[in-house]
Amino acid sequence: MRLAVVGAGAVGRSVVDLASEYGHEVVAVADSSSAVVADGTGGRGGDGSRGVDPDAVVARKAERGIVGDDDPEDALAADYDALVEATPTTLGDAEPGFSHVRTALERDRHAVLANKGPVAERFGDLRAAVGDSDGEIRFEATVGGAIPAVSTVEDIEPGHVTAVRGVLNGTANFILTRMAAEGLDYDHVLAEAQDLGVAEADPSFDVDGTDAALKCVILANVLSFGAADDPADAREFTLDDADVEGIRDVPGSALRLAAEDGRTVRLIGEATGETVRVAPRLVPENGTLAVSGTQNIVQIETTHAGRLNISGRGAGGPETASAVLGDVGRLE
């Protein structure tokens, strides 16, 4: 497939870098202020090749802070088969990601999202746009990085899934793991995580549970709409519907007491077709939910297949790009 990639952060750059390994061609790349569009696909220049040069795009972004000399709108207007939406997640109106996807669908093109905002905050609007288009949307990369949570639920069929829960944020999990292992308090481990680059300078999106909640909202929408006989009867979830508690107030003493009882604390998110909850929970120290470090795990409760566990890397450029490109493959 010919891909237009909007967003040139770690995920977008990794999609550009890895696309050819999956048999796809990147014909346009845009960041917030610039774009590069290959010859013959709507751009204003190039070297005569069909696709953009991935190495040149990555190098130009690193050296000059831009991906090319075209306008971002040129990438949206290029001749592509699928748009990859990899801009940063925004809440509320989920812009500009939602508009990027809508533009692709209005052109009867497919869209693959790594951006959680449109799927978590405007799922009904997305479905309406898909209904008016010959294009489709996929969004595996919005939940759990490389972990195939969404596609597994779809393969089982949402009507046969009663709940999905798990550890869905690597930063929070790293902090809780270190607190338990070393007997340290939250502030000490947070500073360590920031020094290591595991936590952002402003870690609130991760440690307050927002990131995990958005992923659970997306799963709740998949369950709700997938199980409904009539989509009009499905409940649409947004972040406002989630009951969220983060890890800032988890004391080191709580982890020490839990360890004495053979348990530990993890930030657990849970989604059903009716509720979304995220909060620190006591789990068995050697149980499946007690993954360590930045690992994630998704636990799927089914009506006929019992409990399924899928664990792996829940974030990272190449890891998330693998989910994006897997979705592109499903659209072929």
Brief descriptors of the model:
332 residues; alpha/beta; Rossmann fold; six-stranded mixed beta sheet
Overview of this protein structure:
- This protein has 332 residues and is α/β, with parallel strands linked by helices.
- It has two domains: 2-145 and 319-331, NAD(P)-binding Rossmann-like Domain (Rossmann fold), CATH 3.40.50; 149-314, Dihydrodipicolinate Reductase, domain 2.
- It is built from 13 helices and twelve strands.
- The protein has a six-stranded mixed sheet with strand order 3-2-1-4-5-6, with helices on both faces.
- It starts with a strand and ends with a helix.
- The model is unreliable at 43-49 (pLDDT under 50).
